[in-house]
Amino acid sequence: MIMIVGGAYQGKLDFALSMTGFRKEDFADGRSCGMDELKAAPGVFAFHEFVRRTLEGSGENRQLPGQGGSSGEDSPGYDFDFPDAFARELAGELIRANPELVVITDEIGCGIVPMDAGERIYRECAGRVCTELAAFSGKVYRVSCGIGVLIKDEEDTVPDPPRNDSRQSEKQLYRGPDR
Known about the structure:
By secondary structure, the chain is α/β, with parallel strands linked by helices. It is built from six helices and six strands. It has a single domain (2-33, 46-68, 79-152), classed as Rossmann fold (3-Layer(aba) Sandwich).
């Protein structure tokens, strides 16, 4: 899996197309594709919108906790484990079905925190899904102004040497989800 992240309108899709040799038509559009299309496509752009549609129920018929009236973490009975469970389920399904997928997504967690609880949950879930996918990905690029910077390359990763004390290096602290 290859993951490409960055702000809106930063040239992520063009970067992916030039890097992979695919055409835009080969990629699934996260704004309108279903899970079956995502499982078969070589890549997806606007993946964050697929996450939104999945949460809102228009893509995969799932709903936010507490939807129908008040929704979000402010509503009584909100399940605070929901974002993690949602991320593990969605990311796991994609990883099992299409481990070679090229995922292009906007980074949506920066900036002003939305007042709407549903928007906050969406951002949380999208971030957690992308964290799971990035942990699995062999390569992760961050694109700004059309320039891609490789921020993870598993092929070049060399394990840290063992240490004699009980401390661990920062690199060893987070390895991502179990594969």
